[in-house]
Q: What sequence folds into this?
């Protein structure tokens, strides 16, 4: 490889010390190394030139030979590394995925990788380009909406007619088991950037309104239910409202205010566990008002017996 | 087509590095030989070997920094490949490509 004067290539004087030559080479090599400038043809060319120049004068013995007889004076001693035989590393990595040295984004499987790429491209408005040039978007932007639904609708699912800001109405199917913060994607219901370009999607974020008398505790729903004194003392069945409708709850003898009972599978749906939580029923014993004379007499007798 | 493989002596000859340097790179897991049973390297390994040698010999990078640089470069190349592939798949044009 014939080069310009290596001193000129490295930007040093002919009287430069070896340290000065090495420092000049390192600075230029760092600047032009193809792996730090992947895709820049001129960087690769420049690096090869700088690298070759350093081969000629970077070593005192080679430099002395070069100074005496030019490149030919070296007799091929500096030929080995000069041409950087073989490809640069970045060239071996082009268009690769999953090789020995490949890095995986997303940390998961192919689906995560796809999501990563898609989100990245969406982030660029699908207008990526190493040159930075703007390209026409391949699809319209997604539009976000919020929709408030009832707790029963969230648990059981529902169909709702929604009207978008542009006046368009759409029948929306809410699947059973949704929670606040979840979004429904409506393909093609987003913005349309122009003729011939498909619109983006509409993303409807759901907000679940609390239901009077029901409190959320994780996946469980907590309710307070009144129990008449007779059932509390003797046991029996009481009616309990749930999001799925009223159910009969069998109560054992001798429960008190604050006793917690469980209605399995009557809580909120957990998508990770693929099952519903429970409804926790907190009992609240109630006296009949006014207190019936028979009850008062019975309690009086019981109190006297206790005192005796 | 079967990829060309190079044994240790050939790899040293082609890259101009010493045997000890190659084995050091393999033991440090900077190079994962294409054929681990015979310590045989392919073109990709040789290119990576040259790069490591340049980083150390020419740029003065120390052993602690080598895996950091290689890791960042591998991320960069994987990102470029993923973007090029994604741009094709999602119709953003094939403008995200490595240079030629």
A:
């Amino acid at each position: 490889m014939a080069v310009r004067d290596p001193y000129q290539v490295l930007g040093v004087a002919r009287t430069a010390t070896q340290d000065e030559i090495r420092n000049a080479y390192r600075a230029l090599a760092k600047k032009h190394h193809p792996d730090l400038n992947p895709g820049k043809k001129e960087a690769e060319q420049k690096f090869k030139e700088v690298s070759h120049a350093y081969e000629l004068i970077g070593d005192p013995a080679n430099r002395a030979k070069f100074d005496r007889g030019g490149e030919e004076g070296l007799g091929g001693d500096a030929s080995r590394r000069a041409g950087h035989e073989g490809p640069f590393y970045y060239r071996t990595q082009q268009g690769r995925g999953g090789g020995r040295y490949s890095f995986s984004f997303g940390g998961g499987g192919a689906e995560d990788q796809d999501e990563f790429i898609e989100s990245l491209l969406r982030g660029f408005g699908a207008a990526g380009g190493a040159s930075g040039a703007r390209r026409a978007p391949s699809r319209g932007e997604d539009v976000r909406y919020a929709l408030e639904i009832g707790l029963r609708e969230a648990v059981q699912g529902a169909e709702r007619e929604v009207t978008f800001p542009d006046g368009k109405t759409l029948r929306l199917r809410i699947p059973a088991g949704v929670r606040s913060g979840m979004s429904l994607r409506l393909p093609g219901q987003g913005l349309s950037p122009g003729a011939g370009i498909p619109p983006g999607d509409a993303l409807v974020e759901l907000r679940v309104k609390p239901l009077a008398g029901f409190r959320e505790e994780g996946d469980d729903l907590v309710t307070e239910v009144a129990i008449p004194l007779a059932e509390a003392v003797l046991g029996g069945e009481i009616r309990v409202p749930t999001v799925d409708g009223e159910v009969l709850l069998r109560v054992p003898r001798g429960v008190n205010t604050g006793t917690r009972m469980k209605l399995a599978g009557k809580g909120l749906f957990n998508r990770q566990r693929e099952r519903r939580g429970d409804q926790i029923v907190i009992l609240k014993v109630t006296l009949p008002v006014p207190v019936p004379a028979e009850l008062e007499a019975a309690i009086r007798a019981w109190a006297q017996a206790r005192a005796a | 087509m079967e990829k060309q493989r190079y044994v240790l002596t050939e790899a040293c000859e082609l890259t101009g590095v010493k045997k000890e340097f190659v084995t050091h790179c393999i033991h440090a897991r900077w190079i994962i030989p294409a054929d681990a049973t015979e310590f045989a390297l392919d073109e990709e390994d040789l290119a990576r070997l040259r790069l490591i040698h340049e980083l150390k010999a020419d740029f003065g990078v120390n052993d602690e920094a080598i895996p950091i640089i290689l890791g960042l470069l591998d991320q960069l190349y994987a990102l470029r490949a993923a973007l090029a592939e994604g741009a094709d798949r999602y119709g953003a044009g094939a403008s995200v490509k490595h240079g030629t």
